[in-house]
Amino acid sequence: MESIEQSGRTVDEAVEAALEALGVSRDEADVEVLAQESRGLLGILGHSEARVRVTARAGLAQRACDILARTVQLMGIDAQVAIVDEEPDAIYLELHGSPDLGLLIGKRGQTLSALQLLVAMMTNRQQHPDKRKRVILDAEGYRARRERALTATAHSAADRAKRTGRPVTIGSLNPRERRIVHIALADDPGVTTRSEGEDPQRNVIISPRSGLRHG
Amino acid sequence: MNELVTMIVKALVDEPEQVAVNEVAGERSIIFEVRVAPDDLGKVIGKGGRIANALRTLVRAAGTKDRKSIWVDINKVGESEGETLDE
């Protein structure tokens, strides 16, 4: 974390100058007032400048990464943590390099999802709602692989729906998985998709579009 | 593991100094009794218990090697109400 001390005629001016030097906005920094300005007698005698220390807060992605590293460490797992990407509304983190990652992924990615949710909550807690970011966590490419597999499943289910003229169900998907299926088939004019059932075991129903029967 | 629970809960609440975690270890089970300020309860439990359940999932995963069943109680509310601990 970068920190500088700055003097100025007033506290505000000193803070302004420090923020300028750090290249961050007011809400991305912590300000500590070291000395208030003193106007002195008649504005001349005993006049002293204000002095502040301004510290740029670590970016949200770095914060998320630090929180993840600490959590995994306290779980007794020795793994590397990296920031893969940062978008305006999302942070992508990846865990790798540990034989225990299977433990962190859990059955059908349950543990990974739990870890992702907790890291997101801890990261965003003090953020203004507009500045919160989603945290997307992967371990050794697990999600990426699962996403590819699910996309393939969606396409083959769509083919079957079109061939048979009957709806095909893909069972018990979490919201993120359902979204992958919906997106995978959004451009397929031959089928429509919708979600059905109760969380956390909602299904996606892939129906052939009426009047369109292939094969 | 106590440290894991404490760190996560403190990072979720507005009043971390009010967080207390008590570990009750039985022969085959460990129960973490978490206490937070009443105003922070929602932040630790979450909508429909989402956050509390995520915490339980994570702590269980961390405890897999110990071969003990693990439960996390939060302000003594929720599913384990009425459970007795024979020590």
Please outline the helices and strands.
The complex is a heterodimer of chains A (215) and B (87).
Chain A: E1 3-8, H1 11-22, E2 29-35, E3 50-56, H2 60-74, E4 80-87, E5 90-96, H3 101-105, H4 110-124, E6 134-139, H5 142-164, E7 168-173, H6 175-185, E8 191-196, E9 202-208
Parallel strand pairs in A: 5-6
Antiparallel strand pairs in A: 1-3, 2-3, 4-5, 7-9, 8-9
Chain B: H1 2-12, E1 20-25, E2 29-35, H2 41-45, H3 50-62, E3 69-74
Quick summary of this structure?
With 215 residues, chain A is an alpha+beta fold.
- For this structure, what is the CATH homologous superfamily of chain B? K homology (KH) domain
Low-pLDDT segments, ≥5 res of chain B: 78-87
Task: Give, in spatial order, the strands making up the sheet with the most strands of chain A.
Answer: 1-3-2
User: What do we call the CATH topology of the largest domain in chain A?
Assistant: GMP Synthetase, Chain A, domain 3
Biggest contact: A-B, 20 and 20 residues
**Biggest β-sheet strands, sense, barrel of chain B:** 3 strands, mixed
CATH class of chain B: Alpha Beta
Question: What is the overall pLDDT average of chain A?
Answer: 88
Largest sheet, spatial ordering of strands of chain B: 1-2-3
Radius of gyration of chain B, whole Å: 12 Å
Q: What is the overall pLDDT average of chain B? A: 86
Share of residues in strands of chain A: 25-35%
Number of strands of chain A: 9
CATH topology of chain B: GMP Synthetase, Chain A, domain 3
In which range does the helix fraction of chain B lie?
A: 25-40%
Shape, per Cα inertia axes of chain A? elongated
CATH architecture of chain B: 2-Layer Sandwich
Observed structural traits:
heterodimer; A: 215 residues; alpha+beta; GMP Synthetase, Chain A, domain 3; Ribosomal Protein S8, Chain: A, domain 1; 3 domains; 3-stranded antiparallel sheet; 9 strands; B: 87 residues; 33% helix; disordered C terminus
